[in-house]
Specification:
heterodimer; A: alpha/beta; two-stranded antiparallel sheet; 10 helices; 9 strands; globular; B: mainly alpha; 6 helices
Chain lengths: 225, 113
């Protein structure tokens, strides 16, 4: 009895630990991932709906590492970028609603295609913060089903605390805003979004994470916390 | 038995959130990719090629093997520099290490010929 109480306490701690858990476990939340067991992922060029024209390219470079770290094969990013450009397929808007994505399986051998939509990519110097809002949609190239989708907003506060000296604080904040690259914020967004991704073939916990609680579909994080 | 349950929970606690586990080490590969896309000048190309070498040869991740895509993208840069033979050799290493890349990389090898 005593022990079950400890277990309950531990379980509760686990759930509040991440702060963003839903009531579903991963087996239920990401059913398609466990059924289809995708091995290789093609990163589609991001769809940019923000006002920042450079966002597409910059965000593109931040995506392969977190998916590789989760244990998947990612189609070589620079090589695939080149081929997508050559085949006039560099605009993902053309494909995201397509009923069939089989072509990406035929050309790249990909089991899944990762679409990303950048809704916001703004820097506000007045409030010294950077806001990045991105939607991630992983679709099967075999069935076109959505295997994993989450939306994240990261608000990065660039002001630096300097122990109460207001003048130093203002100067430090200005320098820090200038130095903050959007990519750092994008990386933070990626790491929040992909911590929930069921682990792939090359991870030691592949297929063992079904019972873990899934995170929320829509997350909003202020950094630094 | 009880110990076992607790240790499973502990492992879950550490794996469910927080720091990435580190299947691979990346050195400065991410910055180099970003710089290359931003500038695409000789310096940024040299920089990213150095990073491929480091990630390929000096892997400190738990898998202790070259991450997917690295041989292939490195090969692609070598081919663009005119080092076709070395480039193709790297593309073939990608297939050997990751057979799931064969469909795509064979296509590239045909394009290069």
């Amino acid at each position: 009895m005593k022990h079950s109480r400890y277990l309950l306490l531990l379980a509760t701690l686990l759930m509040v630990g991440c702060g963003t858990t839903s009531k579903l476990n991963k087996a239920k939340a990401y059913k398609g991932m466990y059924e289809e067991k995708p091995i290789s992922v093609l990163i589609m060029p991001p769809i940019n709906r923000s006002t920042n024209v450079d966002a597409k390219e910059y965000f593109h470079t931040t995506l392969n590492v977190p998916i590789l770290n989760a244990g998947y094969y990612v189609i070589p990013p620079f090589l695939s970028m080149e081929i997508l450009k050559r085949e006039s397929a560099y605009d993902s808007e053309l494909f995201i609603e397509k009923p069939s994505l089989k072509i990406f399986n035929e050309i790249f051998g990909a089991d899944a295609a990762l679409f990303t939509i950048i809704n916001k990519w703004d820097k506000s110097s007045l409030a010294s913060q950077v806001t990045v809002e991105v939607e991630y949609i992983l679709k099967s190239t075999h069935t076109s089903d959505v295997l994993y989708s989450r939306k994240g907003t990261i608000i990065y506060n660039t002001s630096v605390s300097s122990g109460g000296n207001i003048l130093i604080s203002i100067v430090a904040s200005a320098i820090n805003t200038a130095a903050t690259k959007y990519v750092d914020v994008a990386r933070a967004a990626n790491s929040y979004i992909f911590t929930d991704l069921p682990k792939g073939k090359y991870s030691p916990t592949h297929a063992l994470d079904k019972e873990e609680m899934a995170g929320l579909k829509v997350i909003k994080v202020r950094l630094p916390r | 038995m009880r110990k076992y349950i607790y240790s499973v929970i502990l492992v879950l606690a550490f794996s469910s959130c927080g720091a990435p586990k580190g299947l691979y080490s990346w050195d400065k590969y991410e910055q180099a990719s970003y710089n290359y896309l931003k500038k695409a000048d000789d310096k940024s190309i040299d920089q990213i090629m150095q990073q491929y070498q480091k990630v390929i040869e000096n892997q400190k991740g738990t898998r202790q093997t070259t991450p997917p895509g690295m041989f292939a993208d490195y090969g692609f840069f070598l081919i663009q520099k005119g080092e076709v033979k070395a480039g193709k050799a790297n593309l073939k290493k990608e297939i050997a290490l990751y057979p799931e890349s064969k469909i795509f990389i064979d296509r590239i090898l045909k394009l290069v010929e």
